[in-house]
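Recall the central idea of this unit: under ordinary conditions, the amino acid sequence of a chain determines the structure it adopts. In this exercise we apply that idea directly, starting from the sequence alone.
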Amino acid sequence: MDALSVIEKAVNIVNEYQAARAEPKEVPPAAGGGQKIWQAPTSGTFKINSDAAVYGDGTLGFGGIVRDEMGEVMLATCDVYEGGCDTDVAEAMAARHAVKVAVEAGLRNIVLESDCLKLITHLKKGLLENSGFSLIVKDILLFRSSNVSLAFNHVRREGNRVAHQLAQMSRTFRELRVWIEEVPNEVWTYVLSDMISMNA
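Accordingly, the structure predicted from this sequence is:
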């Protein structure tokens, strides 16, 4: 059995385990474009992937991971929020959380990547409407005024698996968690899979 087959089998086992532990309402993946696999940022840039999980009881889970041009993990985070909202707002909140943690860690040259096409479109175009969603978009854009270079990219769900798993795990921890230069064991197979795909 080759290494990729072993990784795929491990990923499937982890998926089944996560599904058995909690059954959140899946945040639907965006239709349309976006890359299918995770791609490393350019040299000197850090890529943040973020995702949200919306649970039946109204709890929101946020997940985020920051990696460098080699695919090495700089930091990972997850958090929970008690209180319901629609999926677009949850995705925006997850992105804001991940960017905030990265900026607080001293990172300044950042690409934010999400599978929420609406969020990435609003961020790229600076679209602000009279809504709670737009207030969060504005919060994210304001990081640029803190001497932060911040670009935005849309990725499909397949390219956002690590952040997705961290969002799923948030309910286990029930509080803010940040890992520096590491990830929880349950997420490691996804990180490794991304690194293999990146070098394929």
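The longest strand covers residues 73-82.
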